[in-house]
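Q: What changes when NDP is included in the input?
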Amino acid sequence: MDRAAALTEVFMNDLSQSDAEMPNFQQAVREVAQDVLTVEKNDPAWAAAKVLRRLAEPDRVISFGVTWMDDAGEVHVNRGWRVQASNAIGPYKGGLRFHPGVTLDDLRFLAFEQCFKNALTGLPLGGAKGGSDFDPNGRSDTEIMRFCQAFMAKLAPHIGPDLDVPAGDINVGPREIGYLFGAWSDRAGIYGGALTGKGLSYGGSEMRVEATGFGLIYFVQAMLARQGRDIEGHRVAVSGKGNVASHAARKALQAGAKVITLSDTSGTLYAPDGLTAEEITWVEDRKAAGDDLSNPPARFAASFREGEQPWIQEADIALPCATQNEIGEKAAQAIVDGGYAMLAEGANMPVTADALRVLRKGGVQYAPGKAANAGGVAVSGLEMSQMSHRRFMSAEEVDDALKTLMSDIHDRVAAEGQGDGTIDYARGANIAGYRRLARAITAQGVL
Ligand code: NDP
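A: The predicted holo structure follows.
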């Protein structure tokens, strides 16, 4: 066992016993520990401060019941959480997710990862994540509004512009942010930037909706540029049909790539010659209507493959943009066999630890979500400063700033991940994020 592996085993054993029940959290911490513990041990101040151990223990986990009434007058009870992981470099910041499958394990891992992602942006943003096991599918607009108001009634005392600034995530889009912001503002009695992803009419930023998907493509372009290549003409397979997937597809198409797939839980829409803008719009419309991707119009060249994942098709670049752990060993082997040169994560932790080993062995260059999908939170950071300055940027200004932020994140990560002729982006992201956090945590003493 090498030094990093030995340190990681000791470290993982020292985590709280209750965390053993949290496999996603354990996986996320283990992956970071393997890369950063040797860095920590080489700095006496960071080692003495036990920086990583402190980051693996959230500052607080807030858990609450959410009681709301449906349109028929029936009362429902859900559970809500906010995990405030670290505010060492800025107010707690991270999305809210509404999904029946949400667990505290997911939110712990996402909040932990968010600390590193936010550190990589170079902006003053701490790490958090939250959500509820509420299932919005099939719910009316007024039910969604009542749920958001009930959720915020419990969350409001714990958030604020300088305290904790939630944003959207899975199933929490502009509509939900509007209801959540209205409920917070009403309770707090002030108008302030306690949430990001707001509508343009009440303090939102241009380009926030597009930022994660567009930023992912800017990151991939920076990776390719380093190899003297361009995305134009490359075949790109994208999974998912949500916010991140559709905007990544749109930006890749604009940049001259062939986007051969989008997908959802029902299957994959496959276009060997690349999806058109009209086909991407159709996917967005299906998502908005709550429909799946089956039965595309007969005039489309794209066809629907029920139950298939995108990776069955050969391509050059894989962009998983759907959900966590969507790529297991079998899918990873398909990516290797399909001749993919690169995989960049639009979703958070879409690749399992076993699948990552397969990708690495197969020589697929891998960019982790904490770097590649940081565009969303970066523009959220810009939204926070626009809101407090009461001065708003144009779409062009935000897009230019996003390009610079993604290129800077790429360069920071590449500098730390430099190996013998290759770049280990996962290692680079972990170490670059860790160093920024370690400096701040150590400077602020033992708290
Ligand atoms: P959305 O809710 O907009 O979309 C998610 C889509 O993924 C859904 O349409 C869903 O399909 C699909 N999906 C879920 N599971 C699978 C699966 N196993 N295979 C194929 N498709 C699946 O979410 P977002 O686009 O906002 O988020 C996607 C990912 O990106 C998440 O991991 C999120 O944490 C991450 N992320 C999002 C950011 C943002 O700004 N939105 C920022 C950074 C990361 P169906 O309709 O069938 O349920």
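Observations recorded in class: The chain has a mean pLDDT of 96.
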